[in-house]
From TrEMBL, chain A:
<dbReference type="InterPro" id="IPR051393">
    <property type="entry name" value="ABC_transporter_permease"/>
</dbReference>
<feature type="transmembrane region" description="Helical">
    <location>
        <begin position="32"/>
        <end position="54"/>
    </location>
</feature>
<protein>
    <submittedName>
        <fullName>Sugar ABC transporter permease</fullName>
    </submittedName>
</protein>
<dbReference type="InterPro" id="IPR000515">
    <property type="entry name" value="MetI-like"/>
</dbReference>
<keyword id="KW-0813">Transport</keyword>
<keyword id="KW-0812">Transmembrane</keyword>
<feature type="transmembrane region" description="Helical">
    <location>
        <begin position="128"/>
        <end position="155"/>
    </location>
</feature>
<keyword id="KW-1133">Transmembrane helix</keyword>
<keyword id="KW-0472">Membrane</keyword>
<feature type="transmembrane region" description="Helical">
    <location>
        <begin position="175"/>
        <end position="199"/>
    </location>
</feature>
<feature type="domain" description="ABC transmembrane type-1">
    <location>
        <begin position="91"/>
        <end position="305"/>
    </location>
</feature>
<feature type="region of interest" description="Disordered">
    <location>
        <begin position="1"/>
        <end position="22"/>
    </location>
</feature>
<feature type="transmembrane region" description="Helical">
    <location>
        <begin position="231"/>
        <end position="250"/>
    </location>
</feature>
<comment type="similarity">
    <text>Belongs to the binding-protein-dependent transport system permease family.</text>
</comment>
<dbReference type="GO" id="GO:0055085">
    <property type="term" value="P:transmembrane transport"/>
</dbReference>
<keyword id="KW-1003">Cell membrane</keyword>
<dbReference type="GO" id="GO:0005886">
    <property type="term" value="C:plasma membrane"/>
</dbReference>
Length: 316, 275
């Protein structure tokens, strides 16, 4: 059976033996050990997770610069947010960047995975080489891709110039910024997704392919009638991972075009927008409202993904 | 037969092509780091290694506290990894092999926390750090990340599948207490899972950027990523130096990844297809 690990298996753990009275009492007395063993996570979460999150909710209805008194302002922050064109721009940028990077990433990854599956030799070299971009420092690579798309000496412009095409001010114009950022995301994530797809491909039973061969199906038809449908849960997993990552895009634009988001604020994502409001403008109440809206966004996308998973479960 | 072989050759040509694309940024970074900035600005671009690497390294060291930053990053990454390995595996073992009141509710809470984006806590967390006097200190990076939901979830799956209940029971009957069962039975059998969680945590911690950027306020006391970003912002025109810094910041991680690559890749991919 194939499925994904994003939803936990809701199975009861088979537990040790029958409980005679004595052992039962012993177990009751030893409960405290279990709670103690679990406590580090829950204590840390309470202090550095739950408490700040509840404060964020309160803060979203206040005005505060971090120094003076907090002032309760009702829904003012949210009203400003809805009327703030930068917020909508950041939202659009985030979604556009997500699409510009995720679609090519997943398509290229699928093609590479199918090719890698039919390769017999050097497979571990390919696997390790393809994966390395995923563990490389985002800051270092954002600097690198910034240089590749640089106007004065970038490789991309050097290539255009030698082909006789006019050079572009990539990082100085809105679409150039988006192309530079999504190129970097594609480079970083193709290998990871390739290996996920490869694992998924290898889990498809051989006999299905044999049956298709007997029926006279060609390579292309086999791909669309067997490989793709069998791979669907894995593809959805990669979409979920890409969605979560895509909504959090921050380092790439922040390093490449700076805190302003670059020309036309084309690199302004929702998380960069949040970072600016909170830690550059010290507009904490407003930042809290932005954080809540990012959370709502995550919930919305998770709900959409969840629905797709459920839909898949029913037609199985 | 020849047609079959031809297809095989074409396949590897395509796969090697992709490999070159993935490796190209590293090669180009090395080329830029070994040439002078004047060479980089030339057209057509210089595609060979230069001899300026030593000079560039000296410039990096003169402009940022590189070794201090690397030491800070190593301290944060190593201590976070050790704490996560211990706390997560202990909690996971408890969830996987014992029954106690509230277990399911606690686990649901744990899963729910994975949905919460970091921004939701960031502002008040900064205030908490200010209250504790941890702003600018590495503690602000290590302590909040010392245990996490993902690792507990991951290790629990592993313990459920790899350790038989009979084994735990036998250890208990032999008079092994809870902690000793964890140490002598659970941990040794969980090595592959621990290896993955360890390298995953190390890489994530080494590359972490946003929270260190917020909370490390002393310019002489940064992590590598923040130092690198500072170098880029203040000396952006001196590209060969900035690329040298980028290269120096990447090397330790690539080495660590090289050592554990197999386990890391196996762990990263099997989560996706396991039912």
């Amino acid at each position: 059976m194939t499925g994904t690990a994003t939803a936990p298996a809701a199975t009861a753990v088979p537990l040790t033996g029958p409980s005679s009275g004595q052992r039962h009492r012993r177990r009751v007395r030893s409960y405290w050990r279990f709670y103690l063993a679990l406590s580090p996570f829950y204590v840390l979460f309470a202090v550095f997770g739950l408490y700040p999150m509840l404060s964020t909710i309160v803060l979203a209805f206040q005005r505060w610069d971090g120094l003076g008194a907090r002032r309760f302002t009702g829904l003012e922050n949210f009203r400003f947010l809805i009327e703030d064109p930068t917020f909508w721009l950041a939202l659009t940028n985030t979604v556009v960047l997500f699409l510009m990077s995720t679609v090519p990433t997943l398509v290229i990854a699928l093609v590479l995975a199918v090719m890698l599956q039919s390769a017999v030799r050097f497979t571990s070299v390919y696997r390790i080489g393809y994966f390395i971009p995923n563990v490389t420092s985002l800051v270092a690579m954002a600097i690198f891709f910034g240089s590749v798309f640089s106007t004065n000496f970038g490789l991309v412009n050097a290539m255009l110039r030698s082909l006789g095409i006019p050079e572009q001010d990539w990082l100085g114009q809105p679409w150039g910024i988006k192309i530079a950022i999504s190129t970097m995301i594609v480079w970083q994530w193709v290998g990871y997704n390739t290996l996920i797809y490869l694992a998924g491909l290898q889990a498809i039973p051989r006999d299905q392919y044999e049956a298709a061969k007997v029926d006279g199906a060609g390579t292309v038809r086999t791909f669309f009638s067997i490989t793709l449908p069998q791979l669907r849960p894995v593809i959805l997993f990669t979409v979920v991972i890409s969605t979560i990552g895509g909504l959090q895009t921050f380092t790439e634009p922040q390093v490449m075009v700076g805190n302003s988001g670059g020309t036309g604020q084309s690199g302004m994502t929702v998380v960069l927008f949040f970072y600016r409001a909170a830690f550059l403008d010290n507009d904490y109440g407003y930042a809290a409202a932005i954080a809540l809206s990012i959370f709502a966004l995550v919930l919305l996308f998770t709900a959409i993904n969840w629905r797709i998973f459920r839909g898949r479960g029913e037609d199985r | 037969m020849t047609r079959y072989r031809l297809r095989g050759v074409a396949l590897h040509v395509a796969l090697v092509g992709a490999l070159l694309v993935f490796m190209f940024p590293f090669a180009w970074t090395i080329i830029m780091a070994s040439n002078s900035t004047a060479d980089i600005y030339r057209f057509p671009p210089k595609f060979s290694f230069g001899s300026q690497f030593d000079d560039n390294v000296r410039h990096v060291l003169a402009n940022v506290a590189f070794f201090q930053s690397m030491l800070n990053t190593a301290v944060v990454a190593v201590s976070t990894t050790l704490l996560v390995l211990f706390f997560d595996s202990l909690a996971a073992f408890t969830f996987a092999k014992f029954r106690f009141p509230g277990r399911n509710a606690l686990f649901v809470v744990l899963l729910a926390t994975m949905l919460l984006p970091a921004q939701l806590a960031a502002v008040p967390q900064f205030q908490t750090m200010a209250l504790l006097g941890w702003v600018g200190s590495l503690k602000a990076l290590i302590v909040p990340g010392a245990a996490n939901a993902f690792g507990i979830f991951w290790m629990r799956q592993y313990f459920q599948n790899s350790i038989h209940d009979e084994l735990v029971e036998a250890a208990t009957l032999d008079g092994c207490g809870f902690l000793r069962t964890y140490w002598h039975v659970a941990l040794p059998s969980a090595r592959p899972a621990l290896a993955f969680l360890g390298i995953f945590t190390f890489v994530a911690s080494w590359n972490d950027y946003m929270w260190p950027l917020i909370v490390l306020t002393n310019p002489d006391h940064l992590t590598l990523q923040v130092a690198l970003s500072t170098l880029n912002r203040s000396h952006g025109v001196d590209y060969s130096m900035v690329m040298t810094g980028a290269l120096m910041a990447m090397v330790p991680l690539v080495i660590v990844f090289g050592i554990f690559a197999r386990q890391f890749i196996k762990g990263s991919t099997e989560g996706a297809i396991r039912g």
